[in-house]
Amino acid sequence: MGSGSLRKVKDLATLSFVESKANAALLGPPGVGKTHIAVALAVAACRAGYSIYFTSLDDMVRNLKAAEAAGRLTSKLGSYLRPAVLVLDEVGYQPLNRDEANLVFQVISKRYERGSIILTSNKAFSEWGEFFGDEVLATAILDRLLHHCGVISINGPSYRLKNRLGAIEREQDDAA
């Protein structure tokens, strides 16, 4: 992580973005530490007395769809709207259909300027139209999400892959 990104993480760690009900987005390829940073920020916010809800985007969408089918959507939405900080992990890993994207829009728009979101994504914002299956809906989501948002792009090799490749190389050296 570059010094600029490190400085941005330290700024987020002050939790001023939570106090002002702003958002934080951590972007980059798999394995660069986005989720670790999101969890660390959530733990810091929890220790500071803020309520937290951590979920993957896919789990949130699945839960909202099940609640909608059971006629309990408003109640289930509340579980994502109540906490001071909602952590949405792995945004962009699975494409969404229009109905699913609309459920995400409901959460984002209802939290707008009322509570913070920390999200992690392997997709650049320019790719969100494709991921959400609708450019207009993606633009509406991004408009609310990014209006008050600290964005950190993290690049570099996957820690998991780097560690695994190192272990494989050591195993091969030992076998030789």
UniProtKB/TrEMBL annotation:
InterPro entries: AAA+_ATPase, IstB, IstB_ATP-bd, P-loop_NTPase. Residues 20-153 form the AAA+ ATPase domain. SUPFAM superfamilies: P-loop containing nucleoside triphosphate hydrolases. Belongs to the IS21/IS1162 putative ATP-binding protein family. This is AAA+ ATPase domain-containing protein. It comes from Streptomyces daghestanicus. The lineage of its organism: Bacteria, Bacillati, Actinomycetota, Actinomycetes, Kitasatosporales.
